[in-house]
Design goal:
Urease, subunit C, domain 1; five-stranded parallel beta sheet; nine-stranded mixed beta sheet; 568 residues; 24 strands; alpha/beta; 2 domains
């Protein structure tokens, strides 16, 4: 690889507490280094902002439900990419972009990593096929566990070591990254046409509650010492009054400390928390409870959250929370697809329009931003849209604009048909906070990288870290009075260097670069009981043989494997 020197930019790197210093960033052999030789290629970043590559902690970008969405919504392909380039692969789709457009659009925004947030283990080969097909950006995937029959049976009996042995086997077999919970117990109940809307609702057949599942998987995660904390989509998503269940769920993390060697300090990551911060007892008095939720999060250093901001777009909801998607279909009466995945999980897909002329949509928009503005520690609060559920990931620059500019928020409020009702049900109109570029770097780079256990690789510009460097057309010393220029700058990076190679120049793709799939190789001491249970259930209940279940190496030819060994 050529040596590169990103010269004279305003560097923002929270990993080293650098906030706008004019500096050079030197790159050699795919890594940040102290200095390069006189023959290095110089990239002139004078008058521009330089940050590490972005890290997306939670999105749905690969796998069967994403592909169902693509097949289910041919109309989504009518949204043609305004950035499509000759001599590169075809780009199509808006809320459910093709694999090629996914990689290209993340790169154009200066992102280096995305986490596929809900991998059904049985379909993990499909997930890895799509990850392999997505250019430029590094990816990993979180297998879902909260409704897995093995896990429910082990946790019902209080068998944390057996739960850990099974989780370690499954993560390694699927080439996954960590433990994901979706509607704990509720999706298992969906097989009986039921749901779990509170933490005390019993899961049919298993005689266990969501509270016990959450607590058991926190213990399992820390027993294994995985790089990322337990990652949870909580119960009762999307319903008025659900903030009470959210707070109950968050409180289950109290008293637990992280046990790992990867630098994370948290034991719970609460995802797309906007969808879980609702007050009222119905849609008529639906209101924001963002302050109550974030007031609690602010006091708990062992919790991270991502926002799940509504972007006021037509989109496609998709989630392993099967019963919620059936419920959503009952609200909007649009198309609905449902998939059950044997002993493991379920999923649904429903199109949705976040219409600014609908009061509830306006309140949802405000809640996501309130959460981001109330956060006292941006290193624990991350920008997402739960792509594509609250809107496409390509709207991250718009969310950044709203968080950085009250003027931009007020301009959007002024377009609402029910502006006064939205103001009455939220606090957004009275919040003067405007996030800084340093805080944005914390919320999109350093923070999520640390939470994922990547702090030695991603999210910063220190020597020895991966050479993922984004240059944006913003002048740190004279930020534009027009907030639209903030969105424009983050939408298309002036330069993006991924793993030491220039992949974006003047907002256009310049190379497919070299991507990696990242997974955890989890090891525990031999557990004959768990291995016997696995073999027996595959013989009795699965439609595939155990030898056809694991993901094979050829699906991810350029891996970054992270070893986790409990015995070590």
């Amino acid at each position: 690889m050529a040596e590169l020197l990103v010269k004279g930019g305003f560097v923002i790197d929270p990993t080293r507490r650098i906030d706008g210093d004019v500096m050079d960033v030197a790159i050699k052999d795919g890594k940040i280094v102290e200095k390069v030789g006189p023959g290095a290629k110089v990239i002139d970043a004078k008058g521009k902002v330089v940050m590490a590559g972005g890290v997306d902690v939670h999105a749905h970008v690969a796998g069967p439900k994403v592909n169902v969405g693509r097949l289910f919504r041919p109309e989504d392909k009518l949204f043609k990419s305004p950035n499509a380039q000759k001599n590169y692969r075809m780009e199509m789709g808006f809320s459910i972009p093709s694999t090629f457009k996914t990689g290209y659009d993340y790169a154009r925004m200066g992102y280096s990593f995305v986490m596929e947030a809900a991998m059904p283990p049985l379909h993990s080969p499909h997930v890895h096929e799509e990850i392999h097909d997505t250019p430029i950006i590094d990816e990993a995937a979180l297998p879902v566990f909260a409704n897995n029959w093995f896990v429910l049976e082990y946790l019902k009996n209080g068998e944390i070591e057996n739960s850990a042995a099974y989780v370690a086997w499954l993560i390694t077999a699927t080439k996954g990254y960590g433990i994901k919970l979706v509607n704990p117990g509720g999706t298992a109940a969906w097989a009986w046409g039921l749901n779990c809307l509170t933490l005390q609702d019993p899961v049919p057949y298993f005689d266990i509650t969501p509270a016990e599942i959450i607590t058991g998987l926190i213990k399992t995660n820390e027993y294994l010492g995985l790089p990322h904390s337990m990652h949870i989509h909580q119960n009762n998503l999307g319903n008025p009054g659900n903030y009470e269940v959210t707070l109950e769920s968050l409180k289950l993390a109290e008293g637990y400390k992280a046990k790992n060697k990867f630098g994370r300090e948290q034991v719970m990551h609460s995802t797309h928390i906007q969808f879980h911060s609702y007050g009222g007892d119905g849609w008529a008095n639906f209101e924001s409870k963002a302050k109550e939720v974030m007031d609690y999060v602010n006091t708990q250093k062992n919790i991270t959250v991502d926002l799940g901001c509504v972007t006021l777009d037509e989109t496609t909801t998709m989630t392993a929370d099967g019963p919620f998607e059936h419920h959503l279909n009952g609200l909007n009466h649009l198309k609905w697809a449902n998939v059950d995945v044997e002993l493991e999980t379920a999923a649904g897909v429903v199109p949705y329009v976040y219409d600014k002329d609908i009061k509830v949509c306006g309140i949802q928009w405000a809640i996501g931003l309130e959460l981001g503005l109330y956060a006292k520690d941006p290193m624990r609060t991350f920008i997402t849209t739960d792509h594509p559920n609250a809107g496409p990931f390509t709207r991250y620059p718009r969310i950044i604009k709203w968080l950085m500019s009250k003027k931009a928020r007020e301009a959007t409020l002024d377009t609402f048909k029910h502006k006064d009702k939205v103001i009455d049900a939220t606090n957004i109109h009275g919040i003067d906070t405007e996030r800084t570029l340093y805080e944005i770097a914390q919320m999109t780079r350093a923070g999520p990288a640390k939470a994922l256990g990547f702090s030695r690789m991603f999210g910063g510009l220190a020597p020895g870290m991966d050479a993922d460097v984004a240059v944006f057309d913003l002048n740190y010393k004279s930020m534009p009075s027009d907030p639209e220029k903030i969105e424009q700058a983050f939408q298309r990076a002036s330069w993006f260097i991924k793993s030491g190679e220039i992949v974006v120049k003047n907002g256009d793709i310049a190379s497919h670069g070299n991507k990696r799939t990242i997974w955890v190789n989890a090891k525990v001491k031999e557990n004959p009981q768990v291995m016997r249970d696995i073999h027996e259930k595959f013989l009795k209940d699965y439609t595939v043989g155990i030898l056809n279940y694991p993901v094979h190496d050829y699906l991810a030819p350029h891996p970054l494997v992270i070893d986790v060994d409990v015995e070590a």
